[in-house]
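Supplementary Note 3. Input sequence used for the single-chain structure prediction.
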Amino acid sequence: MSEWIPILVLPNLLLREPIGDGDIAVTPVDDNRIADAVAEHPRIGKFLDRFADAFGDPVDPSVLIIRQEATEAYRNTSAIAGFRDLLAVATIPNARALQITHGGGMGAPVWGETFSIYPWMVDRHGNDLIGQTPAMFGQHGVDEFRGQTDAGLPQFTVEPYAIDRPVFDEVLLRWHRRFGGDEASWEDRALFRSLNMARAAMLMPGGAEYGFYDVGRLLTLWISAFEILLHPGPGGAIGEAQVLNVLDSAVWLDQRCAALAANVKIGKHTTARTTASELCHRMYALRNDFLHGNDVRVEQLAINDVPFLLLASSLYRVALVKFLNLRIPAIEDSANEDAIVRYIGTLSYWKDPQRRHEKAILKAAGIEKGEK
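The predicted structure, written as discrete structure tokens, is reproduced below.
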């Protein structure tokens, strides 16, 4: 019996290497674990071979797999969606930050549809195709199947270096804790509820018909993602001031981001705040105008040629890192030369993703390189 079970496919995502751990992963179709499953259930292989784009060119989907001996709780729909949301949030904001600073995402995905789950999959017995969505439930044969990627989205490749590893690794630990079967804490439930909202906020505003107000709808989802993440729990309260306080308390590599150089007025109170907070304050104002039917002009959707729809994911990453209490570990005073070399080697793991987002935030604020 194969040690791993193919659970579902993501046809808009192309991988070179698997992403995950010893219980759950998303893999390319040529992964040995997929080969083992196909040897046991050949229709899985036939199913995976029948994907193409809108013009009939063959594509290789990615496959989400779960270890046979893993707890049954990991096969729950919420657990699978939580892992997918984690993968999206650990990938898309990085590409969006690069798009802000370099004019492109370097081939990495910037829209949440890349991580869409295909509604059809071979059943657990390896016989028929089962399709299930809120709109339908169906059963069909594999021989008639013609799988297709999203017609409005190219298939994107996620390389290992494109993943925000500090965020991914820490949230994956919490994924096990959240969905492993024990009673989940408020903090863990809030985390995955927020990740789900953030992934929804990273979907395309629409298709060929998308318009101005579609962008506003996604900005409102971003504010919800912030507030769900940072809500203190039953009996507590969350609002703009509390979200900005978290952004102000973040640890920064570039001290221009740490400076309380912006005056932000909420109600009758004006407070000296960071650049990130001032930008988030503008997002709140946009959200309020869209939701309450106030006049909104198209030029308000960007600042210094940076769309708030892209910038939001960098601001969210700041809040997420603070929520997760991710910090560069200190080196021990007694560390020998080898330990120091190893420590230096780990710094890029921590610093590279953060620098990427800090540069995006500084560009949106109009703070040029080298400017103090």
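The first strand starts at residue 4 and ends at 10. The longest helix spans residues 337-364.
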